[in-house]
């Protein structure tokens, strides 16, 4: 990876389980560095702090220079490097899904539960005198979290798109996609696409119905082959996705099917590789 000169727009994979770049540690999980419009955004933090640190160092990425972090969802293979990042870059803003009882911490009004003052004080929560706000804990108590629950502009042609999964096994899981608005359409950076990539595309259409590229995990790793083929052809023929750079939980059968469906518009995005991002859309 070439040193960043502040003008190159690209997405570089820092954590994944496949690739052909020597000197990097492969592990299940995902993290990517986004360099766009003069900012450095870390999208997800991988499965292990030491792996994130080692791969960043090998690629010449200074994690202390990250401007903000986006955590797509709460699973450990996307969050486990956050402690290391916050140790060396403690004031960096972190955008995470808004979840009442999520690992990122949250808050509820102290009166959220029905009360029974007739009970003895020893049977009442907080002895019958709850605080105004009940804060839920997090493994990262010092983090500057911003909880995302609606389409959120980040400025400079970047957006956060939250979608809630309705898929059995991940029902109610909240996941954030990072959308970059470019001259050729949206570049969508996805963590796992647990809600389904087509539902994410539906939500992204509120910004732009043109999708230049999808980068990241499509969660087809355990899908049967007819469903893999259906999704691949739908992305190409119905959603008119121009290029695709799948990784992480997309799955080996889907890598093959997508590469056949997209041909030379399939972009290899293994560990350590960079996917070019077109110039930003005109404001």
From TrEMBL:
<dbReference type="InterPro" id="IPR041712">
    <property type="entry name" value="DHPS-like_MBL-fold"/>
</dbReference>
<protein>
    <submittedName>
        <fullName>MBL fold metallo-hydrolase</fullName>
    </submittedName>
</protein>
<dbReference type="InterPro" id="IPR001279">
    <property type="entry name" value="Metallo-B-lactamas"/>
</dbReference>
<feature type="domain" description="Metallo-beta-lactamase">
    <location>
        <begin position="28"/>
        <end position="194"/>
    </location>
</feature>
<dbReference type="Pfam" id="PF00753">
    <property type="entry name" value="Lactamase_B"/>
</dbReference>
<dbReference type="InterPro" id="IPR036866">
    <property type="entry name" value="RibonucZ/Hydroxyglut_hydro"/>
</dbReference>
<dbReference type="InterPro" id="IPR052926">
    <property type="entry name" value="Metallo-beta-lactamase_dom"/>
</dbReference>
